[in-house]
Every structure is written in C-alpha cells, then in structure tokens.
Write a structure and sequence with these properties.
It comes from Russula ochroleuca. Keywords: Signal. This is Copper radical oxidase. By secondary structure, this protein is mainly beta. It folds into three domains: 176 residues, Galactose-binding domain-like (Jelly Rolls), CATH 2.60.120; 421 residues, Methylamine Dehydrogenase, Chain H; 106 residues, Immunoglobulins (Immunoglobulin-like). The chain contains eight helices and 58 strands. Strands 48, 49, 50, 51, 54, 55, 56, 57 and 58 form a nine-stranded mixed beta sheet that branches. It has a six-stranded antiparallel beta sheet with strand order 21-20-17-16-52-53, with no helix packed on it. Strands 4-7-12-9-10 form a five-stranded antiparallel beta sheet, with no helix packed on it. Strand 52 and strand 53 form a beta hairpin. The longest helix is centred in the N-terminal third of the chain and has 11 residues. 54% of the residues are buried. The protein binds 2-acetamido-2-deoxy-beta-D-glucopyranose (4 copies). The site of one 2-acetamido-2-deoxy-beta-D-glucopyranose has 5 residues, from loops.
C-alpha cells in the first residue's frame, strides 16, 4: 500500500494529463481500462486523516450478499495461497500464480461482482458465467490498489448461475524476468445480487393484492428481509433502517410506485457506473435494489421538477470539479447550465430508465447553482434564481437574480433568455434555493432570506408580503423549510404557507466569525394565509419544540406535517465557519421528528410524543420524502467535499419513518384512472375494510398529492389538494372530481389517496391535466441557443 500522502502527490501530478472522458467511456470493454491509470480512483477520506485514501469500490448494498475469499461457498482448483491483512475484506485475500488455477461459485440471483487487487504483479483472468466465456480481465496496473471491482454482471435472469474465474497464464511483460514468471490473480470477495424472485413481481402486478399485501409482500420475502419487523402497537410510530442508497442522497424524487430517483454531486460513491463512481441512482422502494444512472454533467446542488408530461428535469449544477479529491476523470461535463431529462419510468424493474443530456440543444439560458424549480399551470417549469458559480453565501458577484422557463418562453421581451427579478437582488445575501410554490390563482409565492412576495409571471409584477418576523432568515445557507399547506374546496383553495427553521445570524458576516456549534438555529415556524385578509394579518408565529437548521417538512396524505432532520446549531454548507465538525458547518443534529397538525388550535399543533429517535445525524445534503406506501423515506447527509468517513461522514443508510396507520387495516384503491383532467368526474374503485366501513371518508374527500422534488430542505412542488368525492351505495365506487384548473394542481404526475378516518390507502399514480406536454416555443429555443455558448457540453 502506498502512503496516502505520496498518493496525493501522484494524483496532483497526473491531474495535468488531458485524459478525455471519451477514451474511457465510449466503447471500451471493462478489461481495456486500467483503473490504476485513473487518479479518480482515489479520494475518499477515512477516519482520523484529512488526506484522501484510495477509492475502494467494494460495497454490499441491501439485498446483496458478500462471500469472502475464505467462504466455503467458493470452490478452488489448483494452487492458491492466502494473504492476510486488515485491508482486505474479511481480513484475507487468496491468490494464485498457476496457469489454469480457478475459483468457482454457484449462486442464485441476478448479478455478481468479483473484487480483488490490481497491481504490477497482477495479470489476466478468463471469466466464465454459466460455462460461457464472457470476459478477459486484465488486473495489471502500475500501482497496487485493493478492493477493486474486477468483473461485474448485473443483468442475469433470476435463477441459479455459476461464475468461474481462471488464471489466463499471462507472464511478466518487462524487466529481466520478462516472460519467465506467471503473474498473479486474486480474489478478495464476491458479491451476489440476490434480486427479486420472479413470483413476487407477478403477484404485485394485480392491483388489489399488490396494495393490500404490500407490507406482507416484503416481509414474506426471506431473501430480502433479514430481520422481519417486530409486531407493533397500532398507535405507535416506527423507524426502520433498511437499504443503502449507493450514491449520497442530496436530491430525491419519487418517480413511480416502485422507485425513487436519487441525485448527488460528482464524488467517490461506492456505487459505480461504467468505470466511474456513480452520482445518480434509482432506488427500489420495495426491494431496496439500486441501479446506477449514467449522469453526464455535474448535478451538484441542482434543482428539479416534473413537467406537465411526466418527464423530470434536473437543472443547473456545478462545473467539472478540479480538486484533488474529485478531478476530471469521472467522465463528467460542466453542469452549470445542464438540463438532465428523465422520462416517465413506470416499469417495476426500471430496466430501461436513465437520464439523458443533450447540451448542444437542451440547456439553461444562464448558469445556476442552488436554483428552485416550480411547475406552473401550463405544465412548464419556472427556474428561479441561484448563483452563477459555486461558492457558499451568495453575493452581488455570484448572484443570478433572474428566472427562466423550461421549455423556454418568449415573454416580457425575453425571448428564451433570463428575466430579471429585483426581489433576488433585494434579498441578498442569504437567498439561494428560494422557497416557492404555485398558488391557485396562477401566481407564484417566493420566499428568500427574510422576505416573501407573490410573483405574477404573466404580468411580470410582484406583490411584496410582510417581512418574516423576528429577523429569521429562511433560505440557504440559513436554511429553513417551507410547505404549501393542504388546499381544500371548502375555502375555495385559499393557500397558506408554512415556513420552519432557519437562522437569525447576520448574513453579511464572514464565515470565520460564525460558529458551527455556538450559533443556534431558529425554532420559529411562521404561517401566512395568502388571501387579502390573511396578508393584512401577516405572519403567525409559532415555536417548534427544537430549533432546526436545514429541516425537512413532509406532508402526510392526512394533511398533517412531519418536520424532521436538521441541526440545532450552525449553518448550511461545509468548510466555511469556525468549530467545524469534520468540515460540517453545523452541529447538534436533531434526532427526533415532530408532528405538526395545521388544523389544531395554536399551542396544540406540535406533537413529539411517540415519535422515534434516530441514531443517524441527518444534516447538510439530507432528504426526506413521502412514498406511495405512506411512509417517509429518510436518506443522505453529507457535509463533506467528497465521500468521507470522518465525523458526520457520507451517509448511505436509509430510514423509513412509519406513521401509526402503516400497521392498521387500510383502505385500498383497487383501480383509478391513469389520467385525471381538470374538473373531470371519474370513478375510483376502492376497497374499504370492514373495520373502517362505518367511519366517514375524511370530509368526503380524497387527497391528490405531489410528493415534490426534494433537495436542501426545499420540497419543490410538494402539494396536497383535497378532491370532492362521493361514495356510492355499494361502498366500492368513489366518484371523484378532478381539480378545477392548473392553478390548484398544475398538470403533471399526481398521487391519489383514499382516507377513511385517519387511515390513508397507499397512493395510486395518475396524470393530472389534458395530457398535452408543456407549450414548446421553437423561436424561444433558437433564441436561447443563440444567446448562450454551449460551453458546458464536452
Ligand atoms: C462497439 O464495439 C462493437 C464491437 O467491436 C461494435 O460492433 C460497435 O459498433 C461499437 N459501437 C460503437 C458505438 O462504437
Ligand atoms: C416532455 O416535454 C419536454 C419539453 O418539451 C420534452 O423534452 C420531453 O421529451 C417530453 N416528454 C415526454 C414523455 O413527452
Ligand atoms: C462552466 O460553464 C459556465 C457557463 O455555463 C462557464 O461560465 C464556466 O466557466 C464553465 N466552467 C468550466 C470549468 O468550464
Ligand atoms: C462572492 O462569493 C464568491 C464565491 O463564494 C467569492 O469568491 C467572492 O469573493 C465573493 N465576492 C464578494 C464581493 O464578497
């Protein structure tokens, strides 16, 4: 093993070499690439040191099993010898220099990986799957690296397979012993992806049992669940830790009833794609399987939204990072004007779903880091603010005080180009990742720093709102979280916004005057009803039981809000202030969620009793989202330059916060229409369990929800609209009326949920609106392309 410091010097020296992404990623087989030649294979920071250590892709996600070289399940043929070291998986590795020597493993599953060393004494191996030669792997490298992924195959049908690896007899190539000695191959571990037995998806394909049996569905599956959940009382909340995300969960959105998309920055994540650490993944909500995405540009601190046609856009980000821990060699491109498209993906296995980027034709009109994206009533995306380049606290030089649309529009004299927003100048410095929601009247609420306004995008005018009380700043890096509270027909969908947490620190003070430990977060929540009287009354102030910087707020289908994650002190970001922990700008993680009931009287809205405490700090770059099952998926936390295992290290573990209704008998949506047009009356088939029959449907409504696109405490597009519903005599047919227009619920994906008493069904996806995509103005697109250089493409 090389001394970490020496390694760093080599990495720095090699950074100059113009190693283009193309020579690595295009059409080379894995054996053609020598990872040791790629300095990017170095760079995570282990405990007790600030220096980067070699990147070791060895990783065992939930649903996979690792077999050590010493496992009795691995059979050896020929002469093999053990090497012992704490650097190896399981403390040992097994090697051979005998031509024709082999190891073999039989396994049941869908994929397999072989981990071992590469180095100057290593040679080639032939790899057979099910008796067929599939690859020739060359483990020869200039320097030695451990725990490298030497071979992988993930697309096998779910059944029994064999992997056989044979010493190919390659000999020393250089020096005076050239050609005389055989080189070695070794095995440190084999990781088997167990996958889902085919019977399970089939069982889930029929709608009724799929939802009814959902929880049983995976508890029965012994292969996937190691510890079946203990039976629990019907009124308790539960927190389960299950699954790992493979890439750090900086951004998350639910894309289907089976998957979430997770987007990170470019860094040394254990999940790999092609030859690089991945920075995007699809996470299976039912089996916890992860699938790497082929991201191209650096999505560091991007924003996102679904469009009216169901395609998810992820926009803005960071240039190619050139620091020693995250250099050019990920095959990444400059993401500051990036538009990453993810088309609708409904398949249970998400097999063909991936991100695509076409910077030569599809890009933003201006660079944006830390922008917020809101879907508006015509199904297009309004992209608000951000900083022109990376940094931390925004300032007049970095600020991008504009908004733009995707697809671009020709309005207010800006033909596809950015439209200036004075509000984003007036709210400097702490104004990144604005909190924004589309209001039923088609205008957009925007809060930044201590201020708020309502923007009329059709007229390009704004109405300023009263300042947020008590000097609390609520946007990055003084991050609070905001939600649009449920919209209901009884009060004509009068919108009310809730904003919680943040900080009262002075945003003009330099970082070295602020403290991660001593500067306390705000415990304030503020609420404003956005009607004429509501605005006159101003913000209503409440106190959370615990102060929070960077909280998340998640709407449940019942209309209650769960506030969770965050820190008790400090500020967002890393590497900027005094008293950093590792490099985290924040400390005193808040481990217990709090329930907020917006309909309860003031003073009785917060409930902490019975909410479980998590052992895992979730601070900067952590997320939480409601899932279609009704539980909350909690992931991420990474206040680090790159993947790190120091205090407040990169967190890959997923937790599931399960409200009490998860253990009750629940109503079921048996069938719902795939589309729901405005004001359209449709029938939804439901199955209400005997025990709930005599209980009323919640106010005769069902919930239509957008789970949002979540990043940096911004839950963009999060929405709950109660739709009028009548239950027929048969107790099985609900007649539901779609939202009146796109202001109440902008066209695009939505989730329907039936609620009886306080128990919601699992949610069923539908597409709201007329099914047309967002308007496309070709003139505005051409004008945008002419006005910007495509310099973020490669
Ligand atoms: C990749 O290589 C295969 C086999 O050599 C060839 O058939 C194919 O056309 C190549 N694809 C590209 C994109 O170059
Ligand atoms: C949705 O609209 C966007 C913008 O016009 C387009 O890029 C995308 O391909 C569309 N998606 C679908 C599924 O039609
Ligand atoms: C990335 O692109 C932006 C424009 O989108 C440009 O200003 C910046 O210089 C580029 N950065 C690098 C490192 O290429
Ligand atoms: C603005 O922020 C950038 C990035 O953090 C920094 O480099 C620059 O010095 C700041 N400028 C001013 C005027 O504070």
């Amino acid at each position: 093993m090389m001394h970490p410091h020496l390694l760093f010097l080599i990495v720095s020296a090699l950074v100059q070499i113009p190693l283009s992404a193309h020579c690595l990623s295009d059409n080379t087989s894995q054996a053609d690439v020598n990872p040791a030649a790629i300095p990017a294979w170095n760079g995570h920071t282990p405990p007790g040191t600030a220096s980067p250590a070699p990147f070791t892709p060895y990783f065992v996600p939930e649903g996979a099993t690792s077999y050590d070289s010493s496992s009795p399940f691995v059979y050896y043929k020929g002469a093999w010898a053990d090497t012992y070291s704490s650097h190896f998986v399981g403390g040992s590795s097994r090697k051979t220099t005998q031509r024709g020597a082999a190891f073999l493993i039989s396994f049941t599953g869908t994929g397999i990986e072989w981990f071992g060393c590469i180095g100057p004494r290593h040679g080639e191996a032939l790899v057979y799957v099910d008796g067929r030669l599939v690859n020739r792997v060359d483990a020869h490298a200039q320097h030695k690296y451990i725990q490298q992924r030497l071979f992988w195959k993930y697309d096998l049908p779910h059944r029994k397979h064999t992997l056989k690896v044979v010493h190919a007899g390659s000999r020393r190539r250089k020096g005076k012993h050239a050609g005389k000695f055989y080189l070695e191959i070794d095995i440190d571990a084999v990781v088997v992806y167990k996958g889902v037995p085919p019977s399970l998806p089939q069982q889930r394909a029929s709608p009724a049992p799929r939802y009814q049996d959902h929880d049983h569905g995976y508890d029965q599956d012994q292969e996937l669940v190691r510890q079946p959940a203990a039976p629990s009382s019907l009124e308790t909340w539960e927190l389960r830790q299950k699954g790992t995300t493979g890439v750090a969960a900086m951004q998350i959105a639910i894309i289907s009833s089976s998957h979430a998309i997770i987007i990170d920055k470019v860094e040394h994540n254990p999940l790999t794609v092609e030859h690089y650490p991945a920075w995007g993944a699809l996470f299976n909500l039912n089996t916890y399987a992860i699938k790497a995405l082929h991201m191209k540009s650096n999505s560091f601190c991007a924003g996102g939204s679904f469009l009216g046609n169901g395609t998810l856009i992820n926009v803005g980000g960071n240039p190619v990072v050139e620091s020693h821990t995250a250099p050019l060699y990920f095959g990444q491109t400059n993401g500051t004007q990036g538009v990453r498209l993810f088309p609708p993906c409904e398949a249970d296995d998400a097999a063909d779903c991936d991100v695509s980027e076409h910077p030569e034709r599809v890009r933003l009109a201006s660079p944006r880091w830390y922008n917020t994206v809101v879907r508006i009533q015509d199904g297009s995306a309004m992209i608000i603010g951000g900083s022109r380049r990376g940094g931390w606290m925004n300032n007049v030089t970095t600020n991008n005080p504009t908004l733009e649309y995707y697809p671009p529009k020709n309005i207010h004299g800006a033909n596809g180009t950015p439209i200036r927003l004075q509000f984003l100048v007036d709210t400097l410095n702490s104004n990144l990742f604005p909190i924004a929601f589309l209001l039923p009247d088609g205008r957009v609420f925007i809060a930044a720093n201590r201020d708020a306004m309502i923007y009329d995008w059709k007229k390009n005018t704004d109405e300023r709102l009263p300042r947020i009380p008590n000097g609390v700043r609520v946007t990055y890096p003084m991050t609070g979280t905001g939600l649009l509270l449920p919209l209901a027909p009884e009060n004509d969908y009068a919108p009310e916004v809730l904003i919680c947490g943040g900080s009262t620190l002075d945003d003009t003070r330099p970082g070295y005057e602020l403290s991660a430990k001593k500067d306390l977060a705000s415990d304030q929540c503020v609420r404003i009803l956005l009607t004429e009287e509501g605005i006159k009354r101003g913000w209503q102030v409440e106190k959370m039981p615990e102060a929070r910087m960077m909280p998340d707020a998640v709407l449940l289908p019942t209309g209650a809000v769960v506030i969770l994650n965050g820190a008790g002190s400090g500020i967002s970001g890393y590497g900027n202030v005094r008293d950093q922990v590792g490099v985290s700008n924040a400390d005193n993680p808040v481990h217990t969620p709090v329930l907020y009931d917006p309909t309860a009287p003031v003073g009785k809205r917060f409930l902490t009793q019975g909410l479980p405490e998590s052992p895992i700090p979730r601070m900067y770059h952590s997320v939480a989202t409601l899932t279609p099952n009704g539980d909350i998926m909690i992931a991420g936390s990474n206040p680090n330059f790159d993947r790190s295992e120091v205090a407040y290290g990169t967190e890959y573990r997923v937790e599931w916060l399960r409200p009490p209704y998860m253990n009750k008998q629940r109503p079921v949506i048996v069938a719902a229409p795939g589309t729901l047009d405005f004001a359209q009356r449709v029938e939804v088939q439901v199955n209400i369990p005997e025990s709930l029959r005599n209980r009323k449907l919640k106010g005769e409504y069902i919930s239509l929800m957008d789970f949002g696109f979540v990043t940096h405490a911004v839950h963009a597009n999060s929405r709950l609209v109660y739709l009028p519903a009548e239950l027929a005599e048969d107790g099985q047919t609900l007649t539901v009326t779609g939202p009146p227009h796109g202001g109440v619920y902008p066209p695009g994906p939505g989730w329907l949920c039936v609620i009886t008493g306080d128990v919601p069904s699992t949610a069923m996806k539908t597409m709201v609106g007329d099914g047309q995509g967002p308007p496309v103005d070709h003139g505005a697109i051409e004008s945008l392309l002419k006005s910007t250089k495509g310099d973020q493409g490669d």
